[in-house]
Write a structure and sequence with these properties.
The chain has about 350 residues and is α/β, with parallel strands linked by helices. Helix content is about 40%, strand content about 15%. The strands form 4 sheets. The chain has a 7-stranded parallel β-sheet with strand order 3-2-1-4-5-6-11, with helices on both faces. Strands 7-10 form a two-stranded parallel sheet. Strand 5, helix 6 and strand 6 form a beta-alpha-beta unit. The chain is globular. The chain starts with a strand and ends with a helix. The protein binds UDP-4-deoxy-4-formamido-beta-L-arabinopyranose (WQD). UDP-4-deoxy-4-formamido-beta-L-arabinopyranose binds next to strand 7, helix 7 and strand 8.
């Protein structure tokens, strides 16, 4: 019997699948994945097995349906920890379809917390986002930074989610929670066998870059070159997805080992450096030795001008630091895109 059983929601998705790979290396950790495949595929579990040699138990589940969540915990009794990734995550899509985002992202969290507590789970990690900070002038941001006005319904679902977790763990007898605020997770597993694989045309910068380079997208757009930044394009804090995955293992260990840990806490997960869109494109061109076909387009609704992190709290308390460079992020993303092309995906 494993020491702990961890439910990973969104486990067939980008960050969820990389976190499962990282968890699979932990001794005595049984893993269960739940996903509705709205932005992923069950094929991901085969990719995880090729890397880890482990078959991951999984169930297709719409977490916004309370009955399906109950069935999930009934099928897999003894879940001790939950890492909750499953959510819609596109900034522009949330601007266009706000109710879809509020219904899915908020209801799923409520259903999970309610059922997980009844099932005896004690540790809950919430996948949050730097987008909770909104447009912030004082950079870098740390966990004490007072958030600005959020720029999209997506971001606001993360603000609400953090508050729900904080309020719930405050009164729950056994449940403790951590919100992890990711900056911009990019890149792919070093084997090239696992990476970001959105079901539709991607919205995020790096998969758009690699799909443009491989020819899936004829010409990409740079959304705005008139921002008040060093080259006029938006600044983000890109962090390798495998570093983000490792942070989840550390956060779970932290909750498990620190019985006296606060009922709720928040940590930034970023590299601490800001990179503009044009610098990211340049970094990719240096790696792939291919000129990228792009044109400057109007600004995108919901984008903030600049944001990057101070992640020293995660370093001090979780023992976590982003290790992989922007070059490694682009190299791994490109290797994955080329692997997909070879697969005929
Ligand atoms: C980055 C920059 C775009 C595409 C993401 C996720 C969100 C959350 C926070 C984790 C922006 C520009 C993009 C393109 C471009 N992540 N861009 N052309 O919006 O910062 O948010 O990180 O929880 O889920 O969406 O990331 O990659 O969409 O955009 O110029 O074709 O790249 O304008 O400045 P974003 P992104």
């Amino acid at each position: 019997m494993s020491r702990k059983t961890v439910l990973v929601t969104g486990g067939a998705g980008y960050i969820g699948s990389h976190t499962i790979v990282a968890l699979a290396e932990q001794p005595d950790c049984a893993i269960v994945s739940a996903d509705n495949y709205s932005n992923s595929s069950a094929k991901t579990y085969d990719r995880i097995e090729r890397i880890t040699g482990k078959k991951i138990q999984h169930m297709e589940c719409d977490l916004s349906d309370a009955e399906q969540v109950k069935a999930l915990f009934g099928k897999f009794p003894g879940i001790t920890g939950v890492i909750h990734f499953a959510a819609f995550k596109s900034v522009p899509e949330s601007v266009a379809f706000p109710l879809m985002y509020y219904r899915n992202n908020v209801n799923s969290l409520i259903n999970l917390l309610e059922t997980a507590e009844k099932a005896g789970a004690t540790d809950f990690i919430f996948s949050s986002s730097c987008s909770v900070y909104g447009n912030i002038s004082s950079l870098p941001v740390n966990e004490m930074t007072v958030p600005g006005k959020t720029e999209s319904p997506y971001a606001f679902t993360k603000v609400i989610g953090e508050k729900i977790l904080q309020d719930f763990t405050a009164v729950s007898k056994k449940m403790k929670g951590i919100s992890l605020r990711y900056f911009n997770p990019v890149g792919a597993h070093e084997t090239g066998l696992l990476g970001e694989l959105p079901n539709q045309r991607p919205n995020n910068l790096v998969p758009v870059i690699t799909q443009t380079a491989i020819g899936k997208i004829p010409e990409m757009q740079v959304f705005g070159s008139d921002y008040g930044t060093r080259d006029g394009t938006c600044i983000r804090d890109y962090v390798h997805v495998c570093d983000i995955a490792g942070a989840h293992v550390k956060a779970l260990d932290f909750l498990e080992k620190n019985a006296s840990a606060k009922k709720y806490d928040v940590f930034n997960l970023g590299s601490g450096s800001g990179v503009t869109v044009l610098e990211a494109i340049q970094a990719f061109e240096n790696v792939s030795r291919r000129a990228l076909n792009y044109k400057v387009a109007p600004r995108r609704a919901g984008d903030v001008e600049a944001i990057f992190s101070d992640s020293s709290k995660a370093e001090k308390e979780l023992g976590w630091q982003a290790k992989r460079s922007l070059r490694e992020m682009m190299e791994s993303a490109w290797k994955w895109e080329q692997h997909l092309a070879a697969e005929g995906a």
